[in-house]
Amino acid sequence: MTVKKYFPLIIILITLLIISFIILGIWDSEKYSPVKQLNELKIYSKEELSFLQQEGFLKTLELEEKLKAREEIISLLKSPFLIEQNLNSPDESFKVLATKLNKDNYQLAFKLENKSEQKKGFYLIPVSKNNQAEFKEIKGVINNRNLLSINKDDVRKEPLETLYDIQQHKRELNPELAEAYIDIKHNSYQADPIKIILDAKTTLLAKSTWQITGSRLLDTLEPVYLLVYGSAGGAKEKFKEDNLEKLKVKKTKSGKYAFKTLDNEVIEIGKKDSKPYAKLNKWDGEVYFSISFPTTTEKGLELDNGKVKWKGDRKEHHIYPVGPSQFIGTDSEGKKHKSKINSDGGLEWETILKEKPSLNKIEFNIQTQGLKFYYQPPLNEEKHRPGVICTETECKNKKGEIIIYRPENVVGSYAVYHESKTGDYSKMGGKNYRAGKAFHIYRPKIIDDVGNWVWGELNIDEEKGILSIEIPQEFLDDAVYPVKIDPTFGYDEIGGTGGSVDIITGSKYGSGGSGTLSSISVYLTCDTGCPWAWDAQFAIYEDGVDGIKVDVTNEGNYADGSGCGNWFTLDFPSPAESISNQNYWLYQWTDGLSSCCKTDAITVGASPSCDGGEWCSNKDDYDLTDPITCTYTVQSGDVGSQNYYAFVCDDEPSCSSSASGSFTAEAVSSPSIKLKGGLKFKGGGKFK
Question: Is residue 58 in a domain?
Fold first, then answer.
């Protein structure tokens, strides 16, 4: 009876208690809400907070019940890699309020003010790299009333220099923001100027959005800029955390894996649509090569002992960094040849076959940007000058001396170059592309479980986007499983094939643009030290039948360089010649010699000599088109008709057959005569 009597009262008390807890909860959540805390700290105005909340910039704030320090809260809302500059006029103001980055886009919230008593015009200039982050839109509100919406199709198409004084703007920006103009000019950045008119005493609250293009690692994106021109100011988002290590795989915030090469290029490894992939970037992502294995099997990636592994029932893929190493080959004379591979590191992609496959070919999908692939065939499938005999890996001259050697791992490989750029633009704020080589994809080696091995046949079909490796069927039939297939993707600036420096050699290259000649560099390798000390010059000629000489470098001696495994550079003399955007031939000449002999006989050697005496010689004329000339001062005994026999020799050593003629000497005061033997010598092999 007692319980029944008080039951209604108990229900009422419980209900009141629940209501109290709800009220307290609402009050408590309001007390510790992000907006309330930010408002109490006076970090933002009410209008700014309202805009940030409306645009979703406060959603990810994880504030504790106890108020955090002002700096800590700001670090949660704004990127730590952000660089900003307020406008340098007391009547104008620019401030970044917050930033937000996810896998699809980057957003920057900002406030732009016209504090003056009159209407003012501003240019907002989003700047970003075309293949990484594309400007999408600016949306905002003016004085909390008028909506503003500008998308990428509304931007002005005029060049920036026609809209305002770029040089003045650069001078007024801090150096970090001024780099935007270097990136626009040299590094494939797009600028999208947007003109905005603000009335007197007007404030714009807005956000600018860039769409992330492709499958990029968020912490490897190149910077984006939002420049402001009224006076000068803006922001630069650097993105990079720069915590990736060289040749050591690390899991990133986005859940992918990545590492740096020795020259600080980023290689990323991940999985997209169930396919494991690796992406190799070069020149800060200006070009890239991406490779993936086509599979519908859903398997995760794991990091195991420095390798990223994908494990299937019949195959496994192990992807990991490799450092520089040497490949040692032996020629037909028993001489060992050492070649450096992966000079800046690289990527190894091991495919492990757990059992005999149904097909003897494995295929990968590839995607590339800005690259050209050059197959390196066996030497006996290339064209060479008359008298040169080649096998797959070496070429010999008429005397049986080895003059070209191509290592086995380079035969059947691919040299990968920038599709259009070579040369050094670093003095202009750009990049040093050297010869334009980005990567080398080496011939794959197939190894079974007991060490038996064979070379695989590598093929790249750029049009279809397929890289395939074919394995001899009889090897698969006899192999002890598992079998490992290990193509290497190396970061190499130097070529894989070596040639003797004591001959005239040359190759055709694209200039990549107009400019002024500065120098030519070659990379020197040698097998047993560098005993040679040949004089050398480099020359550049126009592409065409006549091969018109453009210029010749100063002379140097290879012994004066840094020796093996280094670049040897010779400068062009001043004033420098200019070149245009076309193909040119670059030649190396070492101790070339033209001799004008008195008889039709010459002894070939390191220093060729005329058997019957010499009228004159010239080892310094590197012109292919003008007659090679040498000068002789006539003696009294030379009066009358005389014959001459002109030869051209190189350091192979070999000499051409003679070109003959005659001249007549007459006795006059201070007799002299200039002999012109119209010889033209064109030589050289093409190397990649």
Answer: no
pLDDT at position 24 is 46
Same domain? For 345 and 478 the reply is yes
- Residue 525 resides in a domain: yes
Confidence at residue 69, expressed as pLDDT on a 0 to 100 scale: 57
- Residues with pLDDT less than 50, the chain: 1, 23-31, 63-67, 528-531, 624-625, 671-688
163 and 299 in a single domain? The answer is no
Cβ pair 641, 680 in contact under 8 A: no
Q: What is the pLDDT of residue 215?
A: 54
Residue with tokens 């006029």: 89
In a domain, 306, yes or no: yes
Residue 555 sits in the same domain as residue 427: no
Residue ranges making up the domain that contains 94: 82-237
Q: Are residues 198 and 299 in the same domain?
A: no
User: The pTM is what?
Assistant: 0.59
Q: pLDDT digit string (tens) for 3-26? A: 555 556 666 666 666 665 554 444
Peptide bond into 653 cis (omega under 30): yes
pLDDT (0 to 100) of residue 548: 80
* β-pair partners for 232: 229
Cis peptide before 531 (omega within 30 of 0): no
d(CA 114, CA 122): 9
Q: Are 233 and 270 part of one and the same domain?
A: no
Structure tokens at 390: 């080649």
DSSP string, 120-184: EEEEEEEEEETTTEEEEEEEEEETTTEEEEEEGGGS--S-GGGTS-HHHHHHHS-HHHHHHHHHH
Q: What CATH number has the domain bearing residue 172?
A: 2.60.40
The whole-number pLDDT of residue 533 equals 57
Is position 243 within any domain? no
Count of structural domains within the chain: 5
Residues 228 and 328 in one domain: no
Q: What φ, ψ does residue 249 adopt, rounded to 5°?
A: -70, 140
pLDDT computed for residue 63 by the predictor: 45
**In angstroms, rounded to a whole number, what is the distance separating the alpha carbons of residues 504 and 590?**
7
pLDDT in tens, 547-563: 788 888 887 776 655 55
CB contact set of 111 (below 8 Å; sequence gap of 6+): 48, 93, 94, 95, 97, 203, 204, 205
Among all chains, which residue has been given the structure tokens 């809302």?
Answer: 77
Q: Among 565, 586, 607, where does a domain finish?
A: 586
